[in-house]
Design a protein that fits this description.
Layout (H helix, E strand, L loop, with lengths): L1 H20 L5 E8 L8 E7 L8 E8 L5 E7 L19 E8 L2 E8 L2 E10 L2 E12 L4 E8 L4 E8 L8 E6 L20
Antiparallel strand pairs: 1-2, 2-3, 3-4, 5-6, 6-7, 7-8, 8-9, 9-10, 10-11
Length: 198
């Protein structure tokens, strides 16, 4: 009888452990292909979502193609794309949301839409990691002012501009600064809205 009870306890524990190990990011949102490491093989970036979680977070994964036709996981981030519902499904809705991922000339761009604008993070594979090399932001305040940021993290040049649109009229502003960030942030560490520079 003791052996049967121990077996049942073991099986329940094993089932619980197995469920805990399952990846909750089961819904594929997008997949893009392109050469990211200059080996003339089509690498891939996949974004998946955990739709059971109250916040519906995303996971971005980057895979390098291997000569044998298989793919090797190189980088994973559950931070670079803000959750669909930051305050939960019944929380405050901002109108912001993940747009897409693109690959252009070996650079992975993660694009996020805002209620009145958008922003983009650009990553390149260098120094053994996908490092943040660019950030851009364009948005309206809804009251006649358009703001933009263009930050080239490779050179450190960060340009901020504001200009009027609509009926309001004021002198545009332009600020150019050199801000060197070293080492460059890695894709797994970058989180939107958590840093005032990018």
């Amino acid at each position: 009888m003791k052996k049967i009870i121990l077996l049942i306890v073991f099986l329940i524990g094993f089932e619980t452990y197995s469920q805990a190990k399952k990846d909750p990011f089961t819904v594929e949102v997008t997949k893009v292909m392109g050469d990211l490491n200059k080996d003339n093989l089509e690498d891939k970036v996949i974004v998946t979502q955990d739709t059971v979680n109250e916040k519906s977070p995303y996971k971005l994964q980057i895979f390098f193609a291997q000569p044998n036709g298989k793919f090797k996981l190189i980088a994973t981030s559950t931070k670079i794309i803000a959750p669909q519902y930051p305050d939960g499904r019944d929380g405050y809705r901002t109108g912001d949301g993940f747009m897409d991922v693109t690959i252009t000339k070996g650079v992975v761009s993660v694009n996020f839409g805002l209620l009145r604008g958008h922003f983009e993070h650009k990553f390149r594979f260098q120094n053994g990691n996908f490092e943040l090399i660019g950030f851009s932001y364009v948005a309206s305040d809804g009251h006649g002012t358009m703001s933009s940021i263009d930050f080239n993290l490779s050179t450190g040049i960060r340009i901020e501009k504001t200009e009027a649109y609509g009926e309001d009229d004021f002198a545009p502003t332009y600020t150019k600064k050199k801000i060197l960030i070293r080492p460059l942030p890695k894709i797994q560490d970058v989180e939107p809205f958590e840093n005032e520079l990018y």
